[in-house]
């Protein structure tokens, strides 16, 4: 141990010293510095201000040890954590599966709450969550942009969203890195010789991806100087419009949001002959699908979301955060059948 660290240890202010100065118990100081509701808000503020004035700094090794010990005392009754959801799309199931596995590993139980039962009844939802012993909430993706401000009493819970579709309240988020995923996809197509790459998606992907797909598309086109086709919003065009767009812009590759849009819109609208000579990639690769693309790693997102909620619980943080953060998980490129899924052998 060097001299500077030794001097630092000598100057370290103890909880006992703070308790003596504040004229409270050692446990009260411990609770106050962890923002625990066991101590009133005014008393917490007073003790925290005094600790700051005395120069208190937590010992990181001791803090880590205490968090570990507290995690071993997690209640095993059902409902330590809850996931609030309104849809059961496959990708949502993957998110919840990853979250459930991680919660179980950490000693928590994850309750699945169907919000459709409680819409418009915030007091009932809050009471139910508290009765089940739920202290941390995961917010799953919604079909449309959602405002959850009045959904429940947020001051009693910690929360993390696994989506951008829950617009309010502003909570911490864990999401896929939409922008990076798209930039890497466009760059890979350019490396493979594609000069006229187009982007096709449903309009709702603009808010689901926080405008990252369109931003990455335009950024890549600007950087490469390649042709830029208007973004094709598949839910806003007829088959005739689709064919006219294709004839006008002559793309040699199309990036779609997912494989369903390729099979249900692009392939029927353009025809098998045109699609046979097109490179395809998706920004949400689905398992077992022949089309190359980005695996968004939904299980990992769900797992990290649980870690984010549990970290807040360990820090005794409840209510809406003053400075919400966004953690992004990079996707993985998956390519099993090349970029030309509708042509077995490309000339």
Keywords:
HTH lacI-type domain-containing protein, 14 helices, Rossmann fold, alpha/beta, single chain, HTH_LacI, 4-stranded parallel sheet, transcription regulation, Peripla_BP_I, 434 Repressor (Amino-terminal Domain), 347 residues
Q: How many structural domains? A: 3
- Overall pLDDT score: 88
Biggest sheet: strands side by side, in what order?
A: 2-1-3-5-7-13
CATH fold field value of the largest domain: Rossmann fold
Report how far apart the termini are: 68 Å
How large, in whole angstroms, is the Cα Rg?
26 Å
Going by CATH, the architecture of the largest domain would be 3-Layer(aba) Sandwich
The total strand number stands at 14
Shape: elongated
Strand residue percentage: 15-25%
What's the helical proportion of residues? 40-55%
Global structural class? alpha/beta
Task: Provide the low-confidence segments as ranges.
Answer: 1-9, 74-79
How is the biggest beta sheet arranged?
6 strands, parallel
CATH class of the largest domain reads Alpha Beta
Q: Determine the number of helices (DSSP H or I, runs of at least 4 residues).
A: 14
* Order of H and E elements: HHHHHEHEHEEEEEHEHHEHEHHEEHEE
Summarize the structure.
The protein has helices spanning 3-11, 15-22, 26-33, 41-54, 60-71, 90-105, 122-131, 178-191, 205-208, 212-224, 239-249, 259-270, 272-276, 298-314; strands at 81-85, 110-114, 136-139, 146-147, 158-161, 166-168, 172-176, 197-201, 232-233, 253-256, 279-282, 293-295, 326-329, 332-334. It is an alpha/beta fold and 347 residues long. Helix 6 (90-105) links the parallel strand 1 and strand 2.
């Amino acid at each position: 141990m060097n001299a500077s660290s030794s001097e630092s240890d000598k100057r370290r202010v103890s909880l006992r010293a703070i308790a003596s100065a504040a004229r409270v118990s050692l446990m009260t100081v411990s609770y106050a510095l962890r923002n625990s509701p066991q101590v009133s808000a005014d008393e917490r503020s007073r003790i925290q201000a005094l600790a700051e004035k005395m120069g208190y700094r937590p010992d990181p090794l001791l803090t880590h040890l205490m968090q570990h010990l507290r995690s071993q005392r997690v209640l095993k009754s059902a409902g330590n954590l809850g996931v609030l959801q309104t849809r059961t799309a496959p990708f949502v199931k993957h998110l919840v599966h990853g979250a459930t596995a991680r919660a179980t590993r950490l000693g928590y139980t994850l309750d699945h709450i169907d919000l459709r039962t409680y819409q418009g009844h915030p007091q009932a939802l809050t009471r139910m969550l508290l009765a089940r012993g739920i202290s941390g909430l995961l917010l799953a993706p919604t079909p449309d942009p959602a405002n959850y401000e009045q959904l429940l009493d947020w001051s009693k819970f910690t929360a993390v969203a696994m989506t951008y579709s829950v617009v309010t309240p502003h909570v911490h988020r864990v999401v896929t890195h939409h922008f990076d995923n798209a930039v890497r996809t466009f760059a890979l197509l350019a490396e493979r010789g594609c000069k006229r790459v187009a982007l096709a998606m449903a309009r709702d992907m603009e808010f689901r991806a926080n405008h990252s797909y369109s931003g990455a598309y335009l950024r890549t086109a600007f950087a490469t100087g390649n042709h830029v086709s208007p973004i094709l919003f598949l839910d806003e065009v007829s088959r005739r419009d689709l064919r006219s767009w294709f004839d006008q812009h002559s793309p040699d590759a199309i990036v779609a949001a997912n494989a369903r849009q390729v099979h249900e819109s692009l392939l029927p609208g353009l025809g098998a002959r045109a699609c046979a000579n097109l490179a395809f990639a998706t920004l949400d690769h689905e398992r077992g699908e022949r089309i190359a693309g980005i695996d968004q790693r939904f299980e990992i997102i769900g797992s990290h979301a649980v870690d984010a909620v549990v970290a807040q619980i360990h820090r005794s943080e409840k209510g809406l955060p003053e400075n919400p953060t966004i953690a992004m998980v990079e996707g993985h490129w998956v390519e099993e059948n090349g970029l030309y899924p509708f042509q077995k052998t490309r000339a």
